[in-house]
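Methods — Computational structure assignment.
A single polypeptide chain was analysed. Its primary sequence is given first, followed by the predicted tertiary structure written as structure tokens.
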Amino acid sequence: MSHDEDHITSTREKLVRMANQIATFFHSKPREEGIAGLAEHINKFWEPRMRRQLFEMLDAGTEHFDDLVIAASAKIKRPPTAEQADKSVGYARQA
């Protein structure tokens, strides 16, 4: 595995862990309130590139995610494309 692949794996693992930690907090709330709170937190504090990676992982399979993360994903803003997610934080890809 190359250094870049290690970084991608560790970034993805961190995002899963972060999402699941947020879910752990929101499990203390009634289910619908927890779902809404989790989605609001991710929408408010995660940049579009993080949300894009979250959806890439969810689309590939949900086995590593807490069930509250999966339920909240319907309320999390999905960035339309990788390029739009990058532009929204001022990153321009090299041609």
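Note: The chain has a mean pLDDT of 86.
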